[in-house]
C-alpha cells in the first residue's frame, strides 16, 4: 500500500526548503501531468517555486557576492577533490574498495549533478544533505571508512559550514523575513494540494501503475531530504534519531492499492 510521507516543513531552513521544493517540482515535470490530470496544479506549484527561487537567486548579484565567491570556490574544490579521490579508489584491485567507491560515486552524482552552476543557497542545501546522509547511513559511512575518505568529509563539512555562516547571515537577510515567510507559505499550500491531488487521482484511476511510480519516487525524495532535517532536530533535543514513520516526524497520506 503506497504511502506519501509529509515532512514538517517548518523545520527546513530557507535554502533547504527551496532545494526540496525544486526537487519535487523537477520530479513532477518528468511525468506527463496532463495525463495525470494535474497539469494546472503542477503549473501553479512551479509558479510559486519560481517566485522564491528568483528572489533568492537575486542575492548573487549583491555587493557581498565577491567576498563570498572564494569561500564558495573552496567548498566546490573540496567536492571536486573528493570525487577524484573516489574515482582513483575505484581502480584499486581490492574488490571491497572498488565496491565502496561505486556506492559513494553513485550517491555523489545524484546529489551534485551540475552543482557548480547552481545558486549559493542551493549548493549549501545539497552539500548539507549529502554530508548528513553519508554520515548517518551505514552503507555510506562504512564505505567512507573502507576508503579512508573521512578527512575529505571533515574538510567539506568545515568549508560548507564556514560558507553557511557567512552567506546566510547576509544573503538571507537581504530578503525581508515577512516576504520570505509569505513565499514559503504559498509554496507549502500548493505542495499540500499537490499531495492531496496525487493520492486522490491515484485512488480513482483505473491505471494505478503511473501514479504508483510517481508516488514511489516522490517518497524517496521526501525521505532523502527530510531525514537530515529530522536528524538535526533530534540532535538539538539530544534524543536518538527515530526513523521516518507515522509519528511526530511526518503525517502519512495512505493510498489503497
Write up what this structure looks like.
The protein is mainly alpha-helical and 257 residues long. The protein folds into 2 domains: 3-58 and 177-254, no CATH class; 64-170. The chain has 9 helices and 2 strands, in the order E-H-H-H-H-H-H-H-H-H-E. It has a two-stranded antiparallel ribbon. Helix 1 (14-30) packs across helix 5 (120-136) and helix 5 (120-136) packs antiparallel against helix 7. The protein is globular and about 55 Å long. The relative contact order is 0.19. The model is unreliable at 244-257 (pLDDT under 50).
**In order across it, which strands form the biggest sheet?**
1-2
Largest sheet data:
2 strands, antiparallel
Ends apart, CA distance between termini: 5 Å
Helix content: over 70%
Q: What gyration radius follows from the Cα positions, in whole Å?
A: 19 Å
SSE run = EHHHHHHHHHE
Q: What's the number of extended β-strand segments? A: 2
Low-confidence stretches: 244-257
Quote the average pLDDT.
Answer: 85
Count of discrete domains? 2
Give the number of helices: 9
Structural category is mainly alpha
**Globular, elongated, flat, extended or rod-shaped: what is the shape?**
globular
User: β content, as a range?
Assistant: under 5%
Amino acid at each position: 500500500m503506497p504511502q506519501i510521507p509529509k515532512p514538517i516543513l517548518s523545520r527546513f531552513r530557507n535554502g533547504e526548503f527551496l532545494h526540496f521544493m525544486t526537487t519535487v517540482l523537477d520530479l513532477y515535470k518528468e511525468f506527463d501531468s496532463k495525463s495525470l490530470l494535474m497539469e494546472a496544479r503542477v503549473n501553479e506549484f512551479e509558479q510559486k517555486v519560481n517566485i522564491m527561487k528568483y528572489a533568492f537567486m537575486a542575492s548573487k548579484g549583491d555587493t557581498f557576492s565577491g567576498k563570498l565567491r572564494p569561500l564558495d570556490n573552496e567548498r566546490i574544490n573540496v567536492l571536486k577533490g573528493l570525487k577524484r579521490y573516489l574515482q582513483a579508489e575505484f581502480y584499486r584491485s581490492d574488490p571491497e574498495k572498488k565496491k565502496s567507491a561505486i556506492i559513494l560515486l553513485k550517491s555523489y552524482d545524484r546529489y551534485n549533478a551540475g552543482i557548480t552552476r547552481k545558486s549559493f543557497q542551493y549548493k549549501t542545501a545539497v552539500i548539507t544533505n549529502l554530508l548528513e546522509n553519508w554520515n548517518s547511513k551505514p552503507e555510506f559511512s562504512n564505505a567512507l571508512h573502507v576508503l579512508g575518505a573521512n578527512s575529505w568529509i571533515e574538510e567539506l563539512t568545515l568549508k560548507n559550514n564556514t560558507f553557511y555562516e557567512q552567506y546566510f547571515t547576509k544573503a538571507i537577510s537581504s530578503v525581508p523575513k515577512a516576504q520570505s515567510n509569505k513565499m514559503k507559505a504559498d509554496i507549502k499550500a500548493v505542495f499540500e494540494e499537490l499531495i492531496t491531488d496525487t493520492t486522490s487521482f491515484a485512488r480513482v484511476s483505473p491505471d494505478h501503475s503511473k501514479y504508483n511510480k510517481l508516488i514511489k519516487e516522490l517518497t524517496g525524495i521526501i525521505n532523502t531530504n527530510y531525514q537530515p532535517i529530522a536528524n538535526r532536530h533530534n540532535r538539538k533535543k539530544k534524543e536518538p534519531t527515530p526513523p521516518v514513520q507515522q509519528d511526530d516526524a511526518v503525517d502519512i497520506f495512505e493510498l489503497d492499492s
